[in-house]
Design goal:
- By secondary structure, the protein is α/β, with parallel strands linked by helices.
- It contains 14 helices and ten strands.
- The strands form two sheets. A six-stranded mixed β-sheet has the order 8-7-2-1-9-10, sandwiched between helices. The protein has a four-stranded antiparallel β-sheet with strand order 4-5-3-6.
- α2 packs across α7, α5 runs parallel beside α6 and α7 packs antiparallel against α10.
- The two termini are 13 Å apart.
Length: 311
């Protein structure tokens, strides 16, 4: 069975989606629709904006959503079918669009509000995110339990956990991780300590917009990397909780593998998630579909067009 993967923040890059915009009418319509909803030229930001501008979370999030949805629309027009969708953090919104649970225009408004609320929360409670490589999840959780102001944020794959820290607590976490045997300790280029209590005000700010949206039952299935389970109702509460809860990507892929999923197509910019999948389930088939060449390769390779991935 095939699952689609949708990336979150960190996968953005200048030029993202522009080759799709130039090559496919449906991609062009998707980016133009996004510009109408957002009130600015998103295509221009992606094409000629600065890296700093694209890295602003209130811009990054709509840009990633739009690129992934544009790529998905090209793929589905080419015959792609799939059995489930999941996303990493922001990517959950894209997965909900992909499965029909959320309209694209509503998702755009939500992620724009989400980005603005997260930026405000980060300014109010400064923090950082630190990737720890070479430590197992249990060791990282034990470190977080004894250091004030640090929380596990992303359980990505074996030996890779990201921790959110209040700014003053980061040095203590970094030193403790090195002492525990971490091979690498890397501060991530993000603007706040996301997926932690430090951004609780963002969850509160998003409660009203989430409640105002009309949700549908997903088809195909939606799998949440917040709950590490299939979900078909209660999305407003889930996405509010997601902001202050860790992303359980490793557990999610293990659950899907146990349920018979053996192929994962990452739709949108980059290849971060397929790289993580290969470290979780080496037997899984993986591919990316974010630019003209990789979309063509995915369709030529039979991804979903006959219910099976041929490579």
């Amino acid at each position: 069975m095939i699952a689609l993967l949708f990336p979150g923040q960190g996968s953005q890059a200048i030029g993202m989606g522009c080759d799709l915009y130039d090559a496919f009418a449906v991609a062009r319509e998707t980016f133009d629709e996004a510009g109408e909803v957002l009130g600015y030229d998103l295509t221009g930001v992606c094409r000629i904006g600065t890296a700093e501008e694209l890295a602003r979370t209130e811009v990054t999030q709509p840009a990633l959503l739009t690129h992934s949805v544009a790529a998905l629309r090209v793929l589905t027009a080419g015959g792609l079918t799939f059995d489930a969708a999941l996303g990493h953090s922001l990517g959950e919104y894209t997965a909900l669009v992909a499965t029909g649970a959320l309209e694209f225009r509503d998702a755009l408004a939500l992620v724009q509000a989400r980005g603005e609320a997260m930026a405000a929360a980060a300014a109010r409670h400064p923090g950082v995110m630190v990737a720890l490589v070479g430590l197992d999840a249990e060791t990282v959780e034990a470190l977080c339990a004894v250091i004030d102001g640090v929380w596990p944020a992303n359980f990505n794959c074996p030996g890779q956990v990201v921790v959110s820290c209040a700014a003053p607590a980061a040095p203590a976490l970094e030193e403790a991780a090195k002492a525990a045997g971490a091979r690498r300790v890397v501060r991530l280029p993000v603007s706040g300590a996301f997926h932690s209590p430090l951004v609780a005000s963002a969850a509160e700010a998003l409660r009203g917009p989430l409640a105002a949206v009309s949700w549908s039952r997903p088809a195909p299935a939606f799998f949440s990397t917040c709950s590490a389970a299939f979900e078909d109702t209660g999305f407003a509460a889930l996405l509010e909780r997601q902001l202050v809860s860790p992303v359980r990507f490793e557990a999610s892929i293990r659950c899907l593998s146990a349920a018979g999923y053996n192929a994962y197509l990452e739709v949108g910019p980059g290849s971060v998630l397929t790289g993580l999948v290969k470290r979780i389930d080496r037997a899984a088939a993986t591919a990316t579909a974010g630019e003209v060449g990789s979309l063509a390769a995915a369709l030529d390779g039979g991804w979903g067009t006959t219910g099976e991935a041929t490579r």
